[in-house]
Each structure stands twice: as structure tokens, then as C-alpha cells.
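[Discussion] Sanity-checking designs against the backbone

I'm trying to build intuition for which residues belong where. Below is a C-alpha cell string of 310 positions. I'd appreciate it if someone posts a full sequence so I can compare it with mine line by line.
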């Protein structure tokens, strides 16, 4: 179908999606939206990898990980783990706060919580929360290992990755909804095959969920690499040697051996890629140039412009 004939369906589909969210767009507004959307589609896949790693480096890291036994994850001594976390947090705080202010962060204080369970994980959420699970402490070989994980989660907050992830999920859901409505209208008008309303609604809900997941995955790996790079900087400023945290990154890789998840479905870099990237950052190599504005960020601006015009 020619773009000229397709345009009314795109505009109608976008209008229906906006209506479902409580907006009432005009046709003139939707024509501008479609024009912007075509340009944005051409930008898909043009985002930069923030720190491309040579295949030789990744291959060497993969070989090392293959020969490294996975650490045994269990419950650490609770008092010792909590004391270590308090000491690490106090040492990192001035450096992380300084980095946060340099980058224009609006909230540069974090609530660090220890959870006493045999889970090898940590995460950042909300505006200021960081959770460190006990399994990390059972796998750590030194204090710098714990400092690296905490600095990584602080970096997610400093770089505003939580808000970015939420935004990407919303955009992914919105785009998926547009595509389902568009497809239903095309079937009805062009092929004379109208779909039952209930089926279309179910498809829209399913597509929104898938789209939201795709939006989250769009830059998850790059976000993790950015957080690792900034964590290495925070460690240095706090007086830690990032090279001493290599054991934790190696342990992460050893625990993920055998994971064959495709890169586009990953939330974190594969073990060898992450180890090679950490080695580069720990050696003092300059951090990669920040990502240029990607198609998802363009799309975010496009959606915001449309909403402002409604």
C-alpha cells in the first residue's frame, strides 16, 4: 500500500490510542504526528554502542570465564555483611555525591538497604533506593567487590536510568498499541475482514505488554555498561582500585555460564562482554562518549510534542 493511502489509517490508529489514554487529538495534530513518525522510523537502529569492545577481548574474557568455577552463593554472617556495607557506603558517599552534582543530578542522596537472604543480586529503584542482597557478600572476595556493586547502583540513579526505563516502557506500549489498531483498521477497510471488538482489545492489551518489555530492553545493556563505567570512576575517587573488583565481575560471568539469551533480549551484557568492558574501565581508559540522542529519545520528544498540542 502506498504511504499516501496508508496515512489515514495511521492517523486514525494514533487518534484511537490517544483517546484510550484520555486525549482528544485533532486531525491536523495527527498529520504532524505521522510525518514525525515516518522520520523516526528511519532512525531505528542508529543508536551507538557506548563502548564497543574488540572481539579478541571478548574471546579472551570468555575463555577465562569458562575456566572459572561459579562461586557458592549462601547466607553470609549478617553482622559482618551489614558492617561492611555501612563502611563501604560511608566511604563511597562523598565521591558518589560529587559525581552526581557534577552531572546535574537532582537527588544525590540514597537509601541503602541490606536484605539478609542468599540472593546474588542488587538493584536500584524509585528515586533513591538501593537494595543489596546477602548473596553478594557470600561471593565477595574483598571489600572492593561490594563497593563496585554499590557504586554501580548509585550510578544508575545518577544517570537517571530508572526514569529512562519507565519512559521507554511507556513509549514501547504506546507504539505497539498504535500498530495493533492500525492493523485492525487495515483488515477491516482494505480486506473487508473486521475483527470483533473484544479480540482487538485483547490484542491491544497483549501488544502493550510486549511493547513495554521491548521498550525496557531497548537500551538495558547500554545502561549497564554506562553504570559500570561511572562506577569505576566513583571507586577511584573514593580511593578504591577498580582492578580489585574484577573478581566480582568474573563471578557474575561464571554464574551466567551457559546463558544463550540473544543480546536484544538481555537486560545486562553477557559475562565476557561485561568482563572485557570492566577491564577497560578499571585500567583507566576514558569512558565512552555518552550515547547520542537515539530514536527512542526522539520518539519521546515526538509524543510529548503531540500531547502538548492536544
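Best answer:
Here's mine. Compare freely.
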Amino acid at each position: 500500500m502506498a504511504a499516501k493511502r496508508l496515512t489515514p489509517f495511521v492517523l486514525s490508529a494514533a487518534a484511537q490510542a490517544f483517546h484510550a489514554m484520555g486525549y482528544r487529538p485533532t486531525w491536523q495534530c495527527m498529520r504532524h504526528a505521522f510525518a514525525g513518525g515516518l522520520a523516526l522510523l528511519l532512525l531505528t537502529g542508529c543508536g551507538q554502542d557506548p563502548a564497543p569492545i574488540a572481539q579478541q577481548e571478548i574471546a579472551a574474557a570468555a575463555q577465562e570465564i569458562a575456566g572459572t568455577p561459579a562461586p557458592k552463593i549462601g547466607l553470609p554472617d549478617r553482622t559482618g555483611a551489614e558492617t561492611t556495607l555501612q563502611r563501604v557506603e560511608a566511604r563511597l558517599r562523598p565521591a558518589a555525591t560529587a559525581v552526581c552534582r557534577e552531572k546535574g543530578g537532582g537527588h544525590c542522596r540514597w537509601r541503602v538497604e541490606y536484605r539478609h537472604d542468599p540472593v546474588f543480586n542488587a538493584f536500584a529503584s524509585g528515586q533513591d533506593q538501593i537494595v543489596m542482597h546477602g548473596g553478594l557478600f557470600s561471593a565477595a572476595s574483598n571489600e572492593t567487590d561490594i563497593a563496585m556493586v554499590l557504586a554501580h547502583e548509585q550510578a544508575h540513579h545518577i544517570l537517571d536510568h530508572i526514569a529512562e526505563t519507565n519512559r521507554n516502557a511507556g513509549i514501547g506500549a504506546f507504539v505497539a498499541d498504535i500498530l495493533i489498531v492500525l492493523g485492525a483498521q487495515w483488515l477491516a477497510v482494505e480486506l473487508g475482514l473486521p475483527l470483533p471488538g473484544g479480540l482487538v482489545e485483547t490484542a491491544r492489551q497483549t501488544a502493550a505488554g510486549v511493547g513495554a518489555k521491548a521498550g525496557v530492553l531497548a537500551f538495558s545493556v547500554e545502561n549497564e555498561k554506562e553504570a559500570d563505567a561511572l562506577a569505576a570512576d566513583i571507586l577511584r575517587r573514593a580511593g578504591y582500585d577498580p582492578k580489585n573488583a574484577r573478581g566480582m565481575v568474573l563471578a557474575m560471568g561464571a554464574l551466567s555460564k551457559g546463558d544463550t539469551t540473544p543480546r536484544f533480549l538481555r537486560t545486562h551484557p553477557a559475562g565476557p562482554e561485561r568482563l572485557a568492558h570492566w577491564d577497560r574501565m578499571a585500567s583507566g581508559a576514558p569512558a565512552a562518549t555518552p550515547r547520542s540522542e537515539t530514536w527512542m529519545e526522539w520518539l519521546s520528544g515526538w509524543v510529548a510534542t503531540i500531547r502538548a498540542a492536544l
